[in-house]
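Handoff note, outgoing to incoming analyst
You'll be picking up this chain. Sequence as last confirmed:
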Amino acid sequence: MPMMIVEPDGERVPVKAGETILDAMYNSGYAYRIGCRRGGCAVCKVDLVSGDVDYAKPVCDTVLTDSERADGTCLSCRAVPRGDLTIRLRDERIRLTNAMLRQFRLAAYEKEERAQREATAPGSAAAPIT
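Most recent structure output, in case you need it:
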């Protein structure tokens, strides 16, 4: 499960496979502004500091300029992370609206990470033979 760092606050937000940036924030108990949620209004623009995203669904061609695309601007409602990433919010900070969701999501992420480490540890059934 990829981990997303949200600047300027440095909050850690786990992202499930196929989940958009915006959905990951909301499913982890955070709030950020939204608009149409269809990639057409540009209200949810964020700056991609590191990492890569894909757009599983179409995005209006006129919403992002060529220079914005080149600089790493993406639409959080449609952008699906390919791995770990860092984003920077525009104009406002992320707000924690449901602390329980945040704790559950981080606990699930840590459990998954621990299981992956144990599965690849020397001596485990899934560890590569050298």
